[in-house]
């Protein structure tokens, strides 16, 4: 009796476990400003096509239905960069990008990029992203404001409360190819993997935040489908093990 069934069922269980991990992360960040949802790519035809037209490198593609390992589980996670809806907050330190682009943040691990505009003023008077670092201006230097009593123009210029004194301007950048960026371990931040940022004139919306683009209905539906698939694979694996045991102990005697 062939043992290939063990490999197939194990593949399904590994895939569903990883998919549930991605879904769980999406749901956890459903209220994180600017968060971009992920899609875990498995081996269905629909998802295979999505993978080939998503933000991955296509240079080493292979034919449909081929594999190099007996145990196969989807390992490609695609980030959905579509814009979330806007949420007015009436908070002076909240900003949303109206279109493609990223704020630049100077972190301990270098410059990273984010859509999360829920900024604060740090202890030294600079605009910062909480638990990440200071936000950079168009001169690639941190923006000093000294007070959170500010105004902002739609081109990213930060003004003092009088509306006349310019304190700085956000250095908004974008990437020609989003294959050149990936999510970092810090939620809501992206790092470069070969991509080069280019300045862009994407406008901002002051006193507004961009919501996460996570679709909770879709995530709940996908979660239930994955849980059922995982349970089914586990049950069939148990049955397969019992059949293999009988084949070994009973049929083998004949």
Question: If you had to describe this structure to a student in words, what would you say it looks like?
Answer:
- There is one protein chain.
- Helix 1 (4-28) packs antiparallel against helix 3 (216-249).
- The chain starts with a helix and ends in a 5-residue tail after the last helix.
- The protein is an alpha+beta fold.
- The longest helix has 34 residues, at 216-249.
- The protein is elongated.
- It has a seven-stranded antiparallel beta sheet, with no helix packed on it.
- The chain has helices at 4-28, 45-52, 216-249; strands at 38-41, 76-79, 86-88, 95-97, 103-107, 110-114, 119-121, 127-129, 133-135, 150-152, 157-160, 166-169, 173-174, 181-183, 189-192, 198-199, 204-206, 208-210.
Describe, in short, the structure shown.
The chain is built from three helices and 18 strands. The chain has 254 residues and is an alpha+beta fold.
Please state the CA-atom Rg, rounded to the nearest Å: 24 Å
Overall geometric form: elongated
Assembly state (oligomeric): single chain
Structural class: alpha+beta
Mean pLDDT: 83
Write the element-wise H/E pattern from the N-terminal end onward. Answer: HEHEEEEEEEEEEEEEEEEEH
Biggest sheet, spatial arrangement of strands: 7-8-9-5-6-15-14
Portion of residues in beta strands equals 15-25%
- Low-confidence spans: 67-71
Helical stretch count?
3
> Helix amount, in percent?
25-40%
Largest sheet descriptor: 7 strands, antiparallel
Taking the alpha carbons of the first and last residues, their distance comes to 15 Å
Question: Count the strands?
Answer: 18
């Amino acid at each position: 009796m062939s043992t290939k069934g063990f490999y197939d069922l194990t593949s399904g269980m590994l895939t569903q476990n990883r998919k549930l991990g991605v879904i769980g992360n999406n749901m956890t960040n459903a209220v994180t400003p600017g968060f971009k949802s992920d899609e875990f790519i498995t081996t269905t035809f629909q998802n295979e096509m999505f993978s080939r037209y998503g933000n991955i490198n296509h240079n080493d593609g292979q034919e449909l239905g081929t594999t190099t390992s007996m145990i196969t589980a989807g390992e490609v996670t695609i980030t959905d960069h579509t814009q979330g809806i806007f949420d007015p907050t009436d908070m002076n330190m909240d900003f949303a990008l109206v279109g493609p682009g990223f704020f630049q943040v100077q972190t301990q691990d270098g410059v990273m990029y984010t859509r999360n505009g829920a900024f604060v003023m740090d202890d030294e008077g600079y605009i910062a992203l909480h638990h990440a670092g200071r936000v950079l201006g168009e001169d690639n230097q941190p923006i000093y404001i000294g007070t959170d009593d500010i105004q902002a123009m739609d081109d990213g210029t930060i003004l003092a409360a009088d509306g006349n004194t310019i304190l700085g301007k956000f250095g908004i950048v974008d990437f020609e190819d989003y294959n050149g960026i990936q999510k970092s371990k810090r939620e809501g931040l992206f790092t470069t993997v070969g991509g080069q940022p280019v300045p862009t004139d994407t406008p901002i919306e002051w006193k507004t935040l961009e919501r996460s683009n996570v679709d909770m209905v879709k995530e709940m539906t996908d979660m239930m489908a994955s849980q059922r698939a995982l349970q089914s694979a586990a049950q069939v694996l148990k049955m397969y093990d019992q059949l293999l045991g009988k084949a070994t102990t009973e049929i083998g005697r004949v």
